[in-house]
Amino acid sequence: MLVAELTHRCPLHCVYCSNPLELAKRETELPTETWVRVLQEAATAGVLQADLTGGEPLARTDIVELVRAGRRAGLYISLITSGLPLDEAKLAALVEAGLDHFQLSFQGMYEATARNISNSTSHGHKLKVLDWLKKHGLGVTLNFVIHRQNISELEEMVAFVEGYRPACVEFASVQYYGWGFANRERLLPSREQLDHCVETLKKAEQRLKGKTRLVFVVPDYFAKYPKPCVGGWGRKLMVITPDGKALPCHAATIIPGMQFANVKDQSLLEIWHNSSAFQRFRGEEWMQEPCQSCDRRQLDFGGCRCQAFLLAGDASATDPVCSLAPTRAKVDGILAQIAVAPPATSEQQVDWRYRPNPA
Amino acid sequence: MTPDMRATPKLAKGVRLSDKNQQPRTLLMPERALRLNGPSLAIVELCDGHHTVEQIAERLHAMYAKAEPQRITKDLLGYLALLHDERAVDF
């Protein structure tokens, strides 16, 4: 899987954005011809799918050309988008260019919620985009990022999905890196909210069976074992940043001492095999105890390296969300703070760290 | 959900077969790909909205003449039900 972060520019300013705190400027973005070469190299190397994402991939004026190039190379092309800026003519052009799949994000079920989260007015437009998608017959995934501020709208979200019937719906709990980490105290749900959410989605999954595939991403702070982050470091995924750095994981730039190869200088295959960043946590050599002798080490690969760095201060440590991790107390400490925090209100806007739009 | 023998299965929106020059052939869908072997590829190629399940079964009976026809039909229905629940096929 190739994840192409075409730009960090975005009309939305979501408080949990997965982009790094230091955003790439427009002038550093790769030109069209380099992206086209990257997509061709990926297909030749055996990659089947490419996610065109950002920032907001529609902010690239060459987006139709990039979709066409990816599809011509033989890739399955997904657009991971907020649906802005987009009109029906542009959507028709994307479909004609061969776009396979459209993943549309929602910040909540109401304009006020969406505005609080994204500091933009976008909800009404997204509803229009959904009508156009139906008309043009595209495969659609709806993506709801779930957190303390919108978890109370879950029932409405499920009802909405049952009405629209997309191919797939993702209820993805916020991942706590970058902007999400900076805002975590207002985003983490309580244990009670999460339990209710799990129960609601289990029932929804039964009702939606055979109509819409439901994917639920749990917040791993509440999990017993860590997630198999990126399917294991350097095993399945390559992320290309707007300026061409090849990363084994979206958040990898936060880990100190990493050297990232750039697609401007080397081919994807060379980077995959030789880049020190991809080799650093590949396999099991780097693991510490309890991972090194753990039966689960080939299931979760020790969890997330970026989370280990953020919470334990050591990127080689066991992911602190793991119940077996010596640093699990850090996660429990954060959760204990959450438990005494006041409930969500829309007046909390002023305290957010909104993600800006890079120059 | 198991299909009726008269149903005409077709690939769901956002689902397509990989190009002929890509080996092994796969069924591509949002964030996933399913590797196809001989019989599964033959079935998916006939999920075009025109062939009925009955016609697909007949085609498979001819292709695998040594196997028991009832067994082939049963496996076909099971495979189509799986593809349907994974949202790869509509019928």
Radius of gyration of chain B: 13 Å
> Largest beta sheet of chain B: what is the strand line-up?
2-3-4
What is the makeup of the main sheet of chain B? 3 strands, antiparallel
Task: Report the structural category of chain B.
Answer: alpha+beta
Report the radius of gyration of chain A as a whole number of Å.
20 Å
Q: What is the overall shape of chain A? A: globular
Largest contact between chains: A-B, 20 and 20 residues
Strand fraction band of chain B?
Answer: 15-25%
- Order of strands across the main sheet of chain A: 7-6-5-4-3-2-1-8-9
Plain-language structure description:
The complex is a heterodimer of chains A (359) and B (91). With 359 residues, chain A is an alpha/beta fold. Chain A is 36% helix and 13% strand. Chain A is built from 14 helices and nine strands. Chain A has helices at 32-44, 63-73, 88-97, 111-118, 123-136, 154-164, 178-182, 184-187, 191-208, 268-274, 276-280, 297-300, 305-312, 328-340; strands at 2-5, 49-53, 76-81, 101-106, 139-146, 168-173, 213-217, 238-240, 246-247. Chain A has a nine-stranded mixed sheet. In chain A, a hairpin with a 5-residue loop joins strand 8 (238-240) and strand 9 (246-247). In chain A, helix 1 runs parallel beside helix 2 (63-73), helix 2 (63-73) runs parallel beside helix 3 and helix 3 packs across helix 5. Chain A is globular. With 91 residues, chain B is of the alpha+beta class. Chain B is 41% helix and 15% strand. Chain B contains three helices and five strands. In chain B, the strands form two sheets. A three-stranded antiparallel sheet of chain B has the order 2-3-4, with helices on one face. Chain B has a two-stranded antiparallel ribbon with strand order 1-5. The radius of gyration of chain B is 13 Å and the shape is globular. The model of chain B has no long low-confidence stretch (mean pLDDT 95). The chains are: A alpha/beta (359), B alpha+beta (91). Chains A and B meet through strand 5 of A and strand 3 of B.
